[in-house]
Design brief:
Layout (H helix, E strand, L loop, with lengths): L2 E6 L17 E2 L2 E2 H10 L5 E6 L4 H6 L6 E5 L6 H6 L11 E6 L7 H13 L4 E7 L8 E5 L2 E6 L13 E9 L23 H8 L4 E5 L12 H21 L3 E2 L6 E2 L4 E2 L4 E2 L4 E3 L3 E2 L4 E2 L4 E3 L2 E2 L4 E2 L4 E3 L2 E2 L4 E2 L4 E2 L4 E2 L4 E9 L2 E2 L4 E9 L1 E3 L4 E2 L4 E3 L9 E3 L4 E2 L4 E3 L2 E3 L4 E2 L4 E2 L8 E2 L10 H14 L4
């Protein structure tokens, strides 16, 4: 079976109250339209056509990672039928089936679409619409049947009183043979909205004797269209809950399922424990037997087995090897690699650095553009001075080095193996292996008694202190 897909993504989404097209609002780390295109890719279509408006370059930019997408422009926003007409030239001589979806329906699943296509083929239909039952107040168009046959769809604004009670509604997903595209020319403009409704094609096709049907499968949550901030919030919650349920089944413990946010593309190993208010974003991979404490955010990173990440830590585009301890209040910035059995403690920042096995930087340090060997101890208050105002420079610390507290390493500089740096030093030159480097001004001790008398005199005399 040949399949072409058309994504209607030209709408402005005025109810979103945003300068950003509604299909580019994000659910976790990805825009809405990416969810739609990813679902369609699972069907292996011959074509994916995306209908955009005249300002649709930002939609193209959002879909750069997807191959072989054809873009067509709807010059004026005159409704869904007009949008589909914009794609007709890209479907010339196509002899398969055409699947039409809306670009603002991020929760559609490939399985539902496959089931829909199979029902269409099994029943040898010319035009099919995917429907579902909706409850409560909503604005979906209703599926109108006569003796069980689908004869038309009536939009919410055009409903009669009795029709408002109909539960079966239109999802906005259609499947048709190419020959039915010619019926778009027979659709008349709606006087209420000054638009051409694609829904009208159902009645036109039925009247002309084509085999038309609606397949009521799936549930309402899967077909929600994002038209407002409230819709977006509901979609985020749906995705969040689905992802958490998936990892609960896979052996992950969440201490509060309501407060965690796990990206659909993230991976988590068994027996990992995740505390409240944890955000795992992008393509992050977390190993087994890890513990992630509250208020932690991990973005596009790899966390190996048996890692503990303490409270309020931020890890971005980095790698944490097995048995390491991070935090609390640590910041691991992009392009950092933390080796096995390391300790990166409270208020330590690591940026674009590679740390070997067993490195300890327990508190109040900055390690930027550094290459640090195995079993290195970084004393409190140590910083790598990697920026000279124009360029970044590298600090290299070899194996088994001890860096005393409050040390400044002015890059470019190398600290040799087994060396010691005395506390309070400013190191600007290479330190040889097995050396002790000290850089301090001489200590001066004033006589204790004289110093106290001087203070008292000033206080009594002129209150200068």
């Amino acid at each position: 079976m040949k399949l072409a897909t058309v994504v209607l993504a030209a709408g402005q989404g005025t109810r979103m109250r945003s300068s950003l097209p509604k299909v580019l609002h994000k659910i976790f780390s990805k825009p809405i339209i990416q969810y739609v295109v990813r679902a369609l890719n699972e069907l292996a279509p011959k074509k994916i056509i995306v209908v955009i408006n005249r300002h649709g370059q930002i939609i193209k930019d959002a879909l750069k990672g997807f191959d072989d997408i054809l873009y067509v422009t709807q010059q004026d926003q005159k409704g869904t039928a007009d949008a589909l007409k914009s794609a007709i030239s890209s479907l010339d001589n196509f002899d398969g089936l055409i699947l039409i979806v809306n670009g603002d329906t991020p929760l559609i699943e490939p399985k539902i679409l496959r089931d829909f296509i199979n029902l269409h083929l099994t029943n040898s239909e010319d035009l099919s619409v995917l429907s579902f039952n909706a409850n409560g107040e909503h604005s979906y168009g209703r599926i109108i049947r006569s003796d069980g046959k689908v004869i038309k769809i009536v939009e919410n604004l055009d409903l009669g009183e009795e029709q408002k009670n109909i539960k079966e509604v239109n999802s906005g997903i259609y499947l048709m043979k190419p020959e039915l595209l010619k019926l778009l020319d027979e659709i008349r403009i709606s006087p209420l909205k000054d638009e051409y409704y694609l829904t009208d094609i159902i009645n036109i096709a039925y009247t002309k004797g084509y085999k038309v049907n609606a397949h009521n499968i799936g549930n309402e949550e899967q077909f929600v269209g994002i038209n407002s901030r409230e819709d977006l919030s509901k979609a985020v919650s749906f995705v969040k809950n689905s992802v958490v349920k998936k990892w609960l089944k896979e052996g992950v413990t969440f201490l509060d399922t309501d407060s965690v946010y796990i990206d659909p593309d993230a991976e988590i190993g068994i027996d990992t424990i995740i505390y409240p208010n944890v955000y795992i974003e992008g393509t992050t991979k977390i190993g087994s037997n890890c513990v992630i404490y509250p208020n932690t955010r991990i973005i596009d990173s790899i966390i190996y087995d048996n890692v503990v990440i303490k409270d309020s830590s931020l890890i971005e585009l980095s790698e944490i090897r097995e048995n390491s301890l991070i935090g609390p209040f640590a910041h691991i910035r992009p392009q950092s690699k933390i080796g096995p059995s390391c300790k990166i403690g409270n208020f330590v920042e690591v940026k674009k650095s590679v740390l070997g096995k067993g490195v300890k930087a327990s508190h109040l340090s900055y390690l930027g553009d550094a290459e640090i060997g195995n079993n290195v101890n970084i004393g409190a208050g140590t910083i790598t001075c990697n920026y000279d105002g124009i360029n970044k420079h590298k600090t290299i610390i070899e194996d088994d080095v001890f860096i005393g507290s409050d040390t400044q390493l002015v890059a470019p500089v190398r600290i040799g193996k087994n060396s010691y740096i005395g506390a309070g030093s400013t190191i600007t030159k290479e330190v040889p292996s097995s050396a002790l480097a000290i850089s301090r001004t001489p200590q001066k001790n004033l006589k204790k008694l004289t110093f106290r008398k001087s203070i008292k005199k000033n206080v009594k005399g002129d209150n200068a202190l």
